[in-house]
Amino acid sequence: MSTRPLEISWFAALCDDDAEVLGDPDRAIPSSFDHCAAIALEAERQGFDSILLPSGYELGIDNTTFAAAIASMTSRLRLLLAIRTGELWAPQLARQIASLDEIAEGRLDLNAISSPLPGEELDSASRYQRTAAVLGALDDLLGGTSTAIGDATVAPPRIARTQARRPPFYFGGLSEEAREVAARCADVYLMWPDRLDRVADVVQDLRRRTAHHGRALRFGYRIHVVVRRSEAAAREAAAELVASIEDAAGAAVRSKALDSGSVGVARQTELRDGADDAGYVDGVVFTGIGRARSGCGAAIVGTPAQVKDYLSELSNLGMEAVILSGYPHIEECRRFGELVLPTLEHAPLVLR
Length: 352
Description:
Layout: E1 7-11, H1 33-46, E2 50-53, H2 63-71, E3 78-84, H3 90-103, E4 108-113, H4 124-142, E5 147-149, E6 152-154, H5 158-163, E7 169-172, H6 176-185, E8 188-191, H7 196-212, E9 218-227, H8 231-242, H9 247-256, H10 263-273, E10 280-281, E11 285-286, E12 299-302, H11 304-316, E13 319-325, H12 329-339
């Protein structure tokens, strides 16, 4: 069993992605600053290393605004800010990131998302080409040097020249284009749930690609969790969590996401289709979560020991960061923090 420390992160439900049970509108918990701040503060109290601040268009609250506020309310917790690479002009985004990093006193990391704008029709190759260009510009500007954008040479904002530090890029995607961007630009390659043998294959492929570019790449994993003191109680809680989901309503939720047509989302569907009758793969990974949400669609379900053992298996495959979430987010954060986190060797994955 691996003893390599993991960066253990939690998830701030900024995109109206919280509920007592999934699929029941009456038991959904809309995002508000107070609610999401409470999640982040609980994660810091429990000793998590970092918290993911997701980004959405239609639902929830703005993650950049939230990051500026929560940075002043926390002292140790790292902030993993999702940025959409087609949404802002790179120099404007660089100034925003550098300002946030100053407020957070260096506790800022970036989760780059190769997402189109609402209503934009852009083929995958063009979208990832734009992503690589934006990440390249941010690498220059946040490092305090000028960059070429189109026919112009743009100087870095003053605050970036002063700091001259670029937060690490976390980035994911299963398509050919996404893997190439990760190999060229990312610091941490993020994966969604999959069978362990498939995880091993992706890690091997990304290591090969990254070596071709003369770079090193580290790996992270995004998954939900349902932990209880007994396996029976954990499985019962997972089943209750999705018992109210109607297939049509779940499909409507998934189709609204901007990444609904991606290779990664398609793989989450394949994972559900290949699960056993109870919805499990690899013994403890429950795929039913994905019936009600796009993106990350599975959870580790089990006792504290089972959850720890599965995290150790991920670590043995090369994972160095794990981003967890659960429903409701505060309760599951507290439960994982009390039952599992004290048994793990963990530390922030600081890559500067």
